Amino acid sequence: MVGKRIAVKLGGSILNDPIDFKKMAKIAKKEFSSGNEMLLVVSAMKSYTDRLIEMAKLVEAKDSLLDSIAGIGEVLSARLMAAALNSEGVPSIAIDPSSPNWPIFTNDRFGDADPDLPRTCGAVISNIEPLMKKVVPVICGYVGKTPDGRLTTLGRGGSDTTAVTLARCLNMDEVVLVKDSNMMSADPKIVKNVIQLEDLDAQEALMMSLGGAKILHHKALHYLTPTIKMRIVSAEEGTFTRGGTIVHGHIPDLHIEVHRRPLSMITILTNGHKVNTNQLDGVLSISTLGRATIMYLDGDANETTRMLHSMVKKGLAKAVTIKENLAMIRIWGAAIEETPGVIHKIAEPLATIGINILGLQTVHNKIAIFVDWPQREKAAEELKIALG
To answer: 297: domain CATH number?
Structure first.
């Protein structure tokens, strides 16, 4: 029987006590018996890591020593889960940083390390893939090692990153993140009658994560590839391979794109009154700061200006102005979040070659800048060089 190849991450929110490990082991047994080839990634039990970090800080542990203490919860979880699987008749082995089969290698940014993909994938293919033909490996999430053997952690929520990285290295069919609830349209603790999301692209999932959705850590999405499906499923589903929310696509490291047509910038001095854009065509973005509302428009700017001037006639605004023939350059990708001072790195090289930024807008990992239309290609090329 040929099934899927899956990496399953079990979060700390669903691992509260030994009973939960047995429950997850029973689900894993069903998937294993159905012919699915899998590995499990486990987090520490709920609140365990917080207590470990608190104790480590009280004794002033730092850097690798702090990380080695913070990751003890995952070591315990891996051994408990392997034991639970073996008790269900599923051959399993726990793999933690002390194991000769350990696969996750990182840089030395302690507390928020990033996987070293070439080194990690080499170790995964050599150490983990052969095991999967015989057993279900249970691998500690969240933790890693530098090439010289110092212990690291991947940042809070890092077990998601571990699972996605392993799935990427093994080119698996799916990476499954098992949570305490499904991915919903809003936080059910705040909003009533929320609905489950069945499908998201990676950009949408990233926007939700950066916007405060705690069910998925944004860093994990950076390692997703177009060929691997991500499934976010509730533990209550009783399965790893059906239901839940499917996330597809990937986040490019960096993408720079010039909007295909020239735009107009309309500024309206509003005296604090809200501008109704429902009747306006071609509005790509709108922002308000103080008494000014600024719109970037791909459409008939003159007609829009005439419509907005009705606010002036009603005493709701003072004036409307228009600036035409602008270019919009969009910049987005994982590299935006990982680049400190990214706005400076955009503005400084353009200023050096005499290009003035006429407007700038940011939404999480997306930035749009506006320059004069004739300077668009020169600006885009300079940004590609500056951002690497």
So the answer is: 3.30.2130.10
